[in-house]
Task: inverse folding
């Protein structure tokens, strides 16, 4: 599978809500804090006032408000508290973490999910970089990193930014010894294009002061409940081993398949198995960073089994949970949402008709997919929100394809995850297009009927790429919904849970 920011694409519409306050709680001598950083100084002050505090644990925080980060970081430093990073601690969270007298990672989350992320200041609304604020961040890191402070690395992290998604990632060196710190200048930079700091780690850079991992039993408010697509996993199978054995009998035609299937129950979490819509075979994934990552990998594996025709697949198990009820209820929810759908009063929403000048896209874009799109796509009809809604309630609706796998999707749409990818390498792109064509043929088998593509919004090129590929493949009525999920939501039209059956890369 491709490594080009697939998580960011899959979670396009499920980013942390920066309007929410952090959860900050004191338990014994420890303060726990999680979530986006906003105007939360008072919450920390109240927690610190309880007395006896020695440690602050940051649990999966995407960062946020710079003032709060610096203020709380200084409070932690002044009081001599120790800090622990449990999971990811990014942006303003990393500043607070760096205030710790002693700084450590925890092993409560998986290695790939445990890191400190550092970048410079930017405006939370416009996402524009604010260079004038970088010196005070630089000074705070320098003060707390001491003689391990690396000016070259920190200058790159704070100043070499193309957008707000630029990030220096520094991982737990005990469980991820081969993952050296790396810096990407943009959220859209492919992993292999990021700068790697060879021979360095969190300890040598002064991000942590001790390499021993902190064992934690997180309070209830900070434990991550198993979930998929934003919904909790609730239906646990009573006997995982027996379920895999039964799967082997149902879907395997060879002894090798049966043996491999039975072995899945003992493989490391997060694991998943996906089944084809028809025919034998299974798709597996294990040891993934999250249940969602395992599901995506299992569906991809099932879509593209070597020696068999490409087919659509649905997951059955994720860890010990049966996910078939989610898929069944999601399909019903799409029908209910379509029944409620009424075209909105206005033609356009969320400025979907503006931006992009009078330009027209005629070729695939292979980088910077999150950028304002042109007004038109050559040979493809652009549809607005009102027009698409009318089409969806008509007797002959188009096949509607979501190329980013939104958690909340337009009712009646089908997900073709990573369907908007394109690569500079001709051979790799040709292989991808072959997979895309095979999956699209299953989702939209009649090339003479309308097929419409959408993604996050007017700043998403992935649907442009997918539309251009479909036109090249011979589809005669290709449509592009430029406004995407952003405009659909702005029009307050009904949504339905995302359902993933096809992964192109």
Result:
């Amino acid at each position: 599978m491709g490594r080009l920011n697939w998580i960011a694409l899959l979670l396009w519409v499920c980013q942390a809500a920066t309007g929410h306050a952090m959860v900050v709680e004191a338990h014994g001598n420890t303060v726990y804090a999680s979530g986006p950083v906003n105007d939360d100084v008072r919450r920390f002050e109240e927690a610190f006032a309880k007395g006896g505090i020695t440690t602050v644990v940051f649990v999966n925080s995407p960062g946020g408000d710079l003032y709060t980060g610096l203020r709380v970081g200084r409070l932690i430093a002044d009081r001599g508290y120790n800090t622990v990073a449990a999971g990811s601690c990014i942006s303003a969270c990393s500043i607070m973490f760096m205030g710790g007298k002693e700084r450590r990672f925890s092993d409560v989350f998986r290695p790939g999910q445990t890191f400190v992320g550092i970048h410079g200041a930017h405006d939370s609304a416009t996402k524009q970089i604010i260079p004038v604020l970088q010196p005070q961040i630089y000074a705070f890191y320098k003060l707390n990193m001491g003689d391990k402070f690396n000016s070259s690395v920190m200058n790159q992290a704070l100043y070499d930014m193309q957008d707000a998604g630029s990030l220096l990632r520094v991982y737990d060196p005990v469980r991820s010894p081969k993952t050296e710190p790396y810096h990407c200048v943009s959220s859209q930079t492919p992993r292999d294009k990021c700068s790697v700091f060879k021979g360095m780690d969190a300890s040598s850079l002064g991000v942590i002061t001790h390499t021993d991992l902190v064992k934690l039993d997180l309070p209830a408010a900070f434990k991550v409940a198993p979930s998929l697509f934003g919904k909790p996993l609730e239906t646990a199978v009573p006997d995982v081993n027996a379920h895999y054995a039964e799967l082997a009998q149902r879907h395997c035609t060879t002894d090798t398949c049966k043996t491999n299937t039975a072995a899945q129950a003992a493989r490391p979490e997060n694991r998943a198995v996906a089944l084809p819509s028809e025919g034998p075979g299974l798709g597996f994934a294990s040891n993934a960073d999250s249940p969602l990552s395992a599901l995506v990998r299992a569906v991809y594996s099932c879509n593209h089994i070597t020696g068999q025709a490409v087919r659509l697949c649905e997951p059955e198990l994720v860890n010990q949970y049966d996910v078939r009820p989610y898929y069944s209820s999601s399909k019903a929810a799409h029908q209910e949402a379509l029944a409620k759908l009424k075209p909105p009063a206005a033609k356009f929403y969320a400025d979907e008709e503006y931006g992009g000048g009078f330009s027209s896209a005629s070729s695939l874009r292979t980088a910077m997919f999150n950028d304002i799109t042109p007004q038109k796509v050559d040979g493809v009809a652009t549809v607005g929100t009102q027009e698409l809604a009318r089409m969806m309630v008509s007797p002959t609706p188009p096949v509607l394809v979501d190329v980013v796998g939104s958690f909340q999707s337009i009712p009646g749409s089908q997900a073709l995850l990573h369907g908007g990818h394109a690569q500079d390498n001709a051979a790799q792109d040709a292989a991808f297009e072959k997979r895309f064509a095979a999956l699209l043929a299953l989702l939209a088998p009649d090339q003479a009927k309308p097929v419409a593509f959408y993604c996050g919004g007017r700043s998403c090129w992935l649907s442009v790429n997918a539309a251009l590929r479909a036109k090249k493949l011979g589809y005669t009525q290709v449509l592009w919904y430029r406004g995407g999920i952003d405009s659909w939501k702005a029009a307050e039209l009904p949504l339905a849970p995302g359902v993933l059956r096809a992964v192109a890369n």
User: Anything to note?
Assistant: The chain has three domains: 17-222, 228-322, 329-503. The longest helix spans residues 426-443. The first strand starts at residue 23 and ends at 27. Confidence is low (pLDDT under 50) at residues 1-19.
